[in-house]
Amino acid sequence: MKSLRFASAEALVSHPQVALQSLDSVAHNLYPLLFKASYLLERVEVIRVLLECWPLEEFRLGALLGPSADHAGDLRDRACRACLEACVRGLADHVLRGRGQQRLQLADLTGVRDVQVQQCPCGRALGRWGRTELLARTCNELQVGPGTAQRSIKVLADLFVTEGNFQVVMQALGPVGPAPLRLRCLSFRADSLDPSQLLQVLCLAGPGELRRLQVVHNVRLHAGLVQQLLAQLRFPQLSSLTLPAKAFDTPPACAPATEGEDPLLTAIAWELSQMTQLTELSVAFSTLTGKIQKLLSPLRTPLRALDLANCCLNHADMAFLADCTHATHLEVLDLSGHSLVHLFPSTFFRLLGRAAQTLRVLTLEECSIEDGHLSTLILALSPCHQLQELRFLGNPLSASALRRLFLALCELPKLRWVEFPVPKDCYPEGATYPQDELAMSKFDQQKYDMIAEDLRGVLLRAGRDDIQVSTPVFGSFDPDIQETSNELGTFLLQAFKTALENFSRALKQME
């Protein structure tokens, strides 16, 4: 639905020359309307001039693209390259006008969502890494430009920093002199950086304002570095924290912690307890056997999102999770990589029962869930009436078991998204789990298509055509990895080369 006002705005921006000539006579409160219409139709020349002449004190991209009374459509999942480049260029033009009459004080460029399929006319996306580099380079260009120092606009952004854009971001965050665009960060993602680079850039990014911090993949941290990072920067406003694999490993120079004693883990838990806004924590692929209570019990706020995938949890960990305060507040939970139904059936059942009133997203990938476990799984899921997304890839379930599970899932009223595994019937007899990528890809596609069609039929006959189902064999789409895959590959090759050189050097020393 759209109002007559929005339809008029569309008609105007459809003729860019007319629109640009008419801007001087357009009421200031209509600029947001013209901006959304221009973004929808990808009229980049109009977008750029709208930003150059923006007459309001604030420009908030996410709010402008979201649903409104004039236009119900949500354009926040359109990370359109042409439109976003026009926004940043227009912001620079705004600074360079230098007439002193512009009122813009804050440009909030957050709120855009990165999706797999772009709906904009050009179909070309500008991901988070690209947006970071474009904005940083623009800030740097304006720092050295003539006659720009007198204007200062605060720019809020979600930054994604790797080795490839580290230097340009550092210059933008820490200008030598007055900066017409003052870059501030609300959400920060780091990959392919060494620990010293991470600390440097986070110091400049403003840890006091940071809301979300993702340190992923190829940032090599251990427990000592994690404790140092949290102790130095504090992050008082942080609500979401993601740490890379092996982040809780003992530092190389330290002796392994004795049973029941782990001073580094205790120190990390204390630092986390000082983050009074923290509600989301991801520590996947860290060995935390018997340590979950020590890590989570000091937290002052209940967690809404918790990722413990492949953390080697034991009975004590699961018992704590099932009975702790966090369980009744969890909205997003990932327990992938644990044989939950086989090893911890009662505590798993109790955990889902306590989380049932809030749980929206549940991920149970490679949890060794077999046909014989299905009754327990269905019983555990049955009270989860708030569940919207369920992912259980990599489990050795047959077509008949999946059919029975889908019948049960029809009873969950809010469920909208299911990722299910390739049925084991489609693999050669004797296939083992968990599978590597090569084995995972060798299945009977024709047989899979028939089974998938039957499962969709189960949903349709139950009147649940609102549930979308899929089998992303190699995992769900990750826009950040997709965007930086080339740099990530180069980083991995360099790391492999370094490891070989170290190994060769060690062999020579032994000789």
From TrEMBL:
Record keywords, A-Z: Leucine-rich repeat, Repeat
Repeat listed as a keyword: yes
GO cellular component, one term: cytoplasm
Domain of life of the organism encoding this protein: Eukaryota
InterPro entries listed in its UniProt record: LRR_dom_sf (IPR032675), LRRC14/PRAME (IPR050694)
Family, per entry: Belongs to the PRAME family. LRRC14 subfamily.
Protein name per UniProt: Leucine-rich repeat-containing protein 14B
